[in-house]
Structures are given as C-alpha cells and as structure tokens.
Amino acid sequence: MTKQTHAFQAEVKQILHLVTHSLYSNKEIFLRELVSNASDACDKLRFEALDNAALFEDQPNLEVRISFDEEAKTLTISDNGIGMSAEEAASHLGTIAKSGTKEFMAKLEGDQKKDAQLIGQFGVGFYSGFIVADRITVETRRAGLPADQGVRWSSEGTGEYELETITKAGRGTDVILHLREGEEEFLKTWRVKSTVGKYSDHISLPILMKKETWDAEAAKQVVTDEWEPVNKASALWSRSKSEVTQEQYEEFYKQISHDTEAPLAYTHNRVEGRSEYTQLLYIPAKAPFDLWNRDKRGGVKLYVKRVFIMDDAEALMPVYLRFVKGVIDSADLPLNVSRELLQESRDVRAIREGSTKRVLGMLESLANSEEQADKDKYAAFWTDFGQVLKEGIGEDHQNQERLAKLFRFASTHADANVSLADYVSRAKEGQEAIYYITADSLAAAKHSPQLEIFRKKGIEVLLLVDRVDEWMLSHLYEFEGKPLQSVAKGAVDLGKLQDEDEKKKAEETAESLKPLLDKLKDALKDRAKDVRVTTRLVDSPACIVVEEGDVSGHLARLLKQAGQTAPVSLPTLEINAEHALVKKLEASSASQSHFDDLAQVLFDQAVLAEGGHLEDPAAYVKRVNALLLG
Ligand SMILES: Nc1ncnc2c1ncn2[C@@H]1O[C@H](COP(=O)(O)OP(=O)(O)OP(=O)(O)O)[C@@H](O)[C@H]1O
C-alpha cells in the first residue's frame, strides 16, 4: 500500500481537540496511557498465543521499551505485543468504536474541568499523546503477519492521518511522539523514569530504558546502550499489602478506572480455601456518567495466575455492584475461560459471593464508623450510588439484610441519611410498623396530607422519592421484625399509638356522617371505590388512599411513564370530619348538581395534593371558577 490519506471520524476530531486543550494541566498522563496500551498489547499477545505459540516468533519475552532521540526530539514507546494490521490501525486509531461514544459526546458541556474528568472516565488513551506531540507516528506489525506487512500510521492530530505499508522486522508497535516545542522535558531520563515510576510501576511487564552513567570527562550524564528495567514489574495486586503504599493503590485505581479522583475505599485480599484468588477492589468516589446503564459491563478485570484474561468480567460482580472497579486474579480458572463459561463456573460463583461480601464490608465500615470523615464519605457514596445499591435488595437475597442496613432515606425527622436502624431506634413506644410514603419529589412527599396525623403524633415517616423505591418496596417487607407500611394505603391503623377515645369518636362521627358519605359515594361512584371518614387528616379536608395490595398512585404514574399500563383500581376518598369544608358540605342544602360539583372538586383536590394528575383538568378549573363566582 502506498501512502494514503484518510480523514478522522468526526468524533475523533472533537475528542482530539478536547484532549489537547483540557488535559494539558496533567500532561504527563500520556505516558501512563501509552505504556498501558503497550502492556495491554502484550497481554493480548500472550492470550492469543495460548492457542498459537508461533505468534511469539523468536521473542517470547514480552516487554516495553522507552527511548528518546534528543536531536530528532522524539520519544518512542515500543512494545513487542500483538501489533496491528492496516485495517486495525485504521479502525483503532482513526475511529472510536466504543459504544459509549455517543453518550459521552452528549455529556460534554464545554466546561474544561468537567470535560477533562469525563475524558478520563472515557479513556481516550492513545490520543493523549497529542497533548505533548505535534505529530505521532505509529509503526506496527501484527503478530503472525510477515515482516513486509508492517504499517506506518502518522498524524498531526488535526483532521487526517496517513497510512502506508512498511517492512518491520519485529512484531509489535512503536509509538513515536514528535514532541511539541517546549516539551523537551520528556527527553530527559529522570523525567520519564519518574513518571513511569509514578504511574506504571505496577505494570507486570518489564519497562526498559537505556541506562545513564556519569561521564566524568564530559562532566554530564550520558545514555549508554544498555537497557535496564525502570519499574518493579510485579503486578500490584500480587504484592503483599505491606509492600504497597496508599499512593500506589490510588495510582493503580486511576489507571484502571480512568478516574481522575482517588477512590473512596479499597480492599485487597488473598483468599485461600476452596477457591483461591486475589482481589483488589475499589469503590469510586463519584458515579460515572453511564451508571444507569444496567447493560454496562462491570469494572472488574479478570486475571488467571497474573495472565490477563478479560476486561469487565461481569460474572465476577452482581449487577448492582457494577460501579466497583478492580482486579480479580484466580489461581483455579483455566486460562482459556470464556465469558459464557464464567457464568456457569462454581469457582466464579464463589469469587462473586466472596467479593460481594468484601464490598459490602467496605461500605459497612464507612457507614458504621465513629469517624466523621468516614460518615461523610458514606453519605457522599449514598448520594451517588444509593439508587443502584437499592437494586440489590431484589437481586441478592443472600445479602438482603446487610443491604437494608446500608440504605439511607429522607424522613419527616431529617432530610437525608436516615437508616432503618435509626428509624427503629427512635420509634414511639408501641409503634409496630415502619411508616413510609412514596412520592415523585421530596416536596410532594413532605406536604402530603396523609402525613398530617403522623406529624401531629410525632411519628416519623420515611419519605421515599427515588424511582427505584417502589420496586425496592416490592422486595423489602420488613426490617428487624417491623413491617414496612405505607401511610397512603389502606385504612390508617396506628395500632397502639391511637388512643381508644379517638377511635371511638371517629366511629361515632362516621355514623353521624353516614348520609353525607352515601351522597358522596353516589356522586363519585365512577371515581372512588369508597368514601369514608378518616382520622389521618388534620389540616386537609380529604385525601386519596388505595387499598392494601393495590398499586399506589405513585407507582401507577411511574408505570405509565415507562409505557406500561398499571392495573386500574379505584382509590378510596377519605374525608376529615373536622374540616370546615366537610362541615359546610354536610350542612349545605345545595341542589344535587351543585353538590356533585363540590364532591368532584373535593376529589380532584385530593388527587392533586397526592401529586397526581387530573384526567380532566379543564373541567376542574371550570368547576372551581363557578364556585369562586357563585
Ligand atoms: N501499542 C499498541 N499495540 C496494539 N494495539 C494498540 C496499541 N495502542 C493502541 N492500540 C489499539 O488502539 C485501540 C485504541 O487505543 P486507546 O488507547 O485509544 O483506547 P483503549 O486502550 O481501547 O481504551 P482505554 O484507554 O480506555 O483502555 C486499542 O483498543 C488497541 O486496539
């Protein structure tokens, strides 16, 4: 192939622009990205060579070499890994084939700091070379292809790249950075060495650089022809805990997660017994932009005896812990394990269970810590990841109880951070249930008329306003022996909390109001299953409740939004016998049609107060106007 010029995919151009402009303040990360690509390429070769040892050619030792040429102002990162064919070079370096690209582009805001964080998460890898280079030349040959099928890819990182066929004796890839004016610091051994030490020490392959010695005659350091390793070359997770500093753990996290921030917590263990494996698991400090995508694969890499097997091995973590990043290195799995096989393996099941317990343990130690800093960390975690953790209640029966203890809610006593244990510990004497209300927003929940009696009696009610809450409630029925009970379902039964006098009075009122209730039932027969007197209201004239076991108004709305039809069941209208409006209604000698209007307005208002939508808002407005004028 003679030299051909190609245009970058539109997204690449945009990303290139962003990378070079927004990541400059942390420019040395390009070295981490390129060394990581080189190491990945070697991992891939090792993996493919399991079935085809000939791919090693005459070079079985996998390594990364970094060199520079002061005259030419180039810095070169070479590996003898898998390499790329011409098609691969064009598709891997000229397009962004990842599925998240669209989402990613949609998230960009033009705010450099935020965008830089996003880019980090997304992992632009290779393109980060353009932060310091005004041209990158990649010379590569796919392992297994003959020497004359090498490829040279070259670009200035603007709109185009060039491709041509070359002869390349060794397999693998050389990434040659033509440094920009002012970036000469990367032509110094100490600078490159210290950056590699900082970011890439854990890489399990040797990273080699030419040795420097002191030339007394010239009175300066000179580069020799001898190569020496500049990293420890032992996989970080395989070292013992005492050998790894917190900084190294954090760097490793940043490397595998593309996060720019340190993790919230991590756990590193060697598990022995029936199944033998090492786990190094991290909880990020911030949610990634695609946290909500349940199809997104997990963030845990699988190694078998330090040989990289696959990224994002979802079978190693339950879906609700998809935000966990890290490495699991198994001593038992076969090297040629496939994703399908993983799903069925008993060893993997044991690893998943063990790792889940570790992650929950990490969260518990933050949540239950006496230290304020840990508590704050947990609160921050909950804000970002709480909704995802709630998915676990239905997914992971084994850990239901542990999960429920980790949940935090808003309540009528505090706007956030109320655990079920807190709730139970301050429950009123004689209180047999954990009361909650679901609503579309905190404001709607707080102002719901259904809460009035609970407020009056000082009984705490959990305010559940996350979309997953209704779903969570279909799996979480009780906590420490106390059932969870909706305040908007069924007749209010405060059990021992309600005194006998109140009960008696309510029954008497119901009796005396019977004619009114019958009239209301008749007027609302198409809309309400029943009309009854309630003790749950204090300030409001009426409210809507559904029967125990029926779909709540809130859930019906969620289902509708999701395009599903909720089973229709008419709600019950409850009225407050003490309220002036109800009294007026009772005393009114209005005509039948006027009474019907009043009844409809009462019902509509109860629907609105509950956060519901009126089926015929115009009719409501018309009736209210008529009443205002009347
Ligand atoms: N040294 C290399 N040898 C072989 N292939 C490479 C090399 N560097 C990059 N590639 C190929 O180019 C692709 C794009 O690289 P890039 O660094 O942009 O993203 P990535 O490595 O896939 O993603 P991430 O940086 O998020 O891990 C890689 O997936 C790989 O296929």
Can you walk me through this structure?
The protein has 630 residues and is of the alpha+beta class. The chain has 21 helices and 22 strands. The protein has a nine-stranded mixed β-sheet, covered by helices on one side. A five-stranded mixed β-sheet has the order 10-11-14-12-13, sandwiched between helices. The chain has a five-stranded mixed β-sheet with strand order 15-17-16-19-18. β10 and β11 form a beta hairpin. α1 crosses α5. The mean pLDDT is 87. Adenosine-5'-triphosphate binds next to α2 and α3.
**What composes the largest sheet?**
9 strands, mixed
The rounded distance between the terminal residues' Cα atoms is 89 Å
Task: List unreliable stretches of 5+ residues.
Answer: none
Query: What portion of residues belong to β-strands?
Result: 15-25%
Number of helices: 21
Number of separate strands: 22
Oligomerization state of this entry?
single chain
Mean pLDDT: 87
- Principal-axes shape call: elongated
Short overview:
This protein has 630 residues and is an alpha+beta fold. The protein starts with a strand and ends with a helix.
Label this structure with key terms.
elongated, 9-stranded mixed β-sheet, 630 residues, 5-stranded mixed β-sheet
Task: Give the topology, please.
Layout: E1 4-7, H1 10-22, H2 29-48, E2 64-69, E3 74-79, H3 86-94, H4 101-107, H5 112-122, E4 133-141, E5 150-155, E6 160-166, E7 172-179, H6 189-200, E8 207-215, E9 220-229, H7 246-257, E10 265-271, E11 277-283, E12 299-304, E13 307-310, E14 325-330, H8 339-344, H9 346-367, H10 372-395, H11 400-406, E15 410-411, H12 420-425, E16 434-438, H13 442-446, H14 452-457, E17 462-464, H15 469-473, E18 478-479, E19 482-486, H16 500-512, H17 514-523, E20 530-533, E21 542-545, H18 553-561, E22 572-575, H19 580-587, H20 592-609, H21 617-629
Parallel strand pairs: 2-8, 12-14, 16-17, 16-19, 20-22
Antiparallel strand pairs: 1-6, 2-3, 3-7, 4-5, 4-7, 5-6, 8-9, 10-11, 11-14, 12-13, 15-17, 18-19, 21-22
Helix pairs in contact: 1-5, 2-6, 9-10, 10-11, 20-21
The structure holds adenosine-5'-triphosphate (ATP).
